[in-house]
Amino acid sequence: MSWHIVAKVAANIAKRKLADKATEASTKLGLKHVIITIGIVTAPVALILLMLMLGVAAVVAGGPAAAASGALGIPPVVFSAYVAAETNAPDVAEGCVVDWPIIAGIWKVESNHATYRGRTVTPNGIVTPPLYGITLDGSTPGTARILDTDGGVLDGDPTWDRAVGPAQFLPGSWRAYGQDGNNDGEKDPQNVFDAALATVAHLCLTAPGDYTNPNDLAAALLRYNNSTEYVERVTGWIDYYRSFSFTQGQVTANGVYAFPLPLDTVTVAQIRRTHHDYPASDLLVPEGTPVYTAHPGTVTRISTPCADTQRCRCGWGVHIAGADGYAYTYCHGTRTFVQAGADVTAGELIMASGDTGNSDTPHLHFQIRNPNGALLCPQPILEAWWNGIGLSPIAAPTSGCTR
Question: Is it the case that residue 184 has pLDDT exceeding 80?
Answer without folding.
Answer: yes
